[in-house]
Design brief:
This protein is about 80% helix and about 0% strand. By secondary structure, it is mainly α. Helix 2 runs parallel beside helix 4. It is elongated and about 45 Å long.
């Protein structure tokens, strides 16, 4: 093999390695959105199963803590990728996550019925307030 072919092969290998290791433009958004969806999924599952006010308060508090931890990351992503704020410009890499989140929102609404049973409990009210505060931090 002559030197030119060797050089082209090496450069092609470096280019392919760079493409593979860099990932996609929205990899950070996909990662954070997956974390958010995982938190939602856990919350919905656990809220549906909660059979006491103590359990419900614990479920809501755990979800609030996860939302609070994700809030700065989500805010940063909205600033970094303004196109994510418009449903019509959501990139393909995030469309599946958007569909999954919408499905979970419906399940979350259904799980709210179980939470209402315990809303008069002060621990549940406190936990719910923490959740509301955490949600506000995402704005």
């Amino acid at each position: 093999m002559d030197m030119k072919k060797i050089l082209i092969t090496i450069l092609a290998g470096i280019f392919i390695f760079t493409l593979i290791s860099c990932g996609g433009k929205y990899d950070d958004a996909v990662k954070v959105n997956n974390e958010f969806i995982d938190a939602m999924e856990e919350y919905v599952t656990e809220a549906e199963k909660a059979s006491s006010s103590k359990e419900m308060a614990r479920v809501i508090t755990r979800y609030a803590e996860k939302i609070r931890a994700l809030a700065p990351k989500l805010k940063e992503l909205r600033g970094k990728y303004p196109e994510l704020n418009n449903p019509e410009t959501i990139p393909d890499e995030l469309k599946d996550l958007e569909i999954k989140a919408a499905s979970l929102q419906q399940k979350m609404t259904a799980s709210f019925t179980n939470m209402v049973k315990y809303m008069m409990d002060t621990d549940v009210q406190t936990a719910f307030q923490k959740l509301q505060n955490a949600m506000m931090e995402m704005e």
